[in-house]
Design goal:
By secondary structure, the chain is mainly α. It has 6 helices and no strands. It is rod-shaped and about 75 Å long.
């Protein structure tokens, strides 16, 4: 395995500056918009981000609509508590997610570095 030249290291650093994810940004997103999965969108985990967003918005709307527009009887009472449970689960999920944010960002940045190094080496092999 050969080491990178100074020029290749400069290219690597420039590429990583553009593509590296920031822990500060992910924590800012989490602290303000954790319910909606904004930190998951930032880490490009779109499936879970969409699930978090859905698990917040739909029960939130259901709670508002049920509380304002219906008489709370039987089925609507069940829907209200079901929506509250889903919303509470979404909150719990986002708080558990916080324990893994730093590691997720570090892994993403390390993977990005490996990809850029492979691309630099592949480019130099072809020359």
């Amino acid at each position: 395995m050969r080491t990178l030249t100074l020029e290749e290291l400069a290219i690597l650093e420039a590429e990583l500056l553009k593509k590296r994810k920031s822990k500060e940004v992910v924590w800012a997103l989490w602290s303000v918009l954790h319910y909606f999965g904004a930190h998951r969108y930032y880490t490009e985990n779109y499936l879970y981000a969409s699930l978090m967003f859905t698990a917040t918005v739909i029960p939130g709307l259901a709670i508002i609509l049920l509380a304002v527009y219906t008489e709370l009887e039987a089925f609507s009472y069940f829907l209200l508590w079901f929506s509250i449970a889903i919303l509470a689960g979404s909150l719990l999920w986002s708080w558990i997610d916080a324990f893994f944010l730093n590691r997720r960002i570090e892994e993403m940045n390390q993977e990005q570095e490996r990809v850029v190094i492979r691309r630099i080496k592949a480019t130099n092999m072809n020359q």
